Amino acid sequence: MHMLAALDLATGKIHYRIRRRKRHCEFLDLLKTLRARWPDQRLYLVMDNFSPHRRPDVRDWAADHNVELVFLPTYSSWLNLIEAEFAALRYFALNGTDHRSHAEQNAAIAAFIRWRNARTQPKTGFATDSPIRTWTHYPANSA
Fold first, then answer.
1. What domains lie within the chain, and their CATH numbers?
2. Non-local CB neighbours of 47 within 8 Å, separated by 6+ positions
3. Which residues form the Tc1-like transposase DDE domain (predicted)?
């Protein structure tokens, strides 16, 4: 089983799907769900370079539906904030367990995410001193 997920920085909530396979069509289904959730906003999705993320049909769909796919450099998925959430999920819902079925494991994941989403806060305090966030303070002709 595979989990596909997105972290909403505005609320801190995780939106996810668990599927038997992790191909571009399952990823595209998640994108369509996110698009339906926020129909009038431009979506920016930060992700790694996993091949289903980069498929031409996924990129074409994103371009046609006001979704920008932002790819992290290779070997830098640790920069993606959702990776810390995956670590917490593994620690609190999966480590030290011996689930007898996928249904039981999926229920543990769902319970953890429900608990987490009920207690989360917006992700706002990251990279506060980063030049990316403060680039307007640089002179116009600086190199």
1. 2-126 (3.30.420.10)
2. 53, 69, 70, 71, 72, 80
3. 2-98
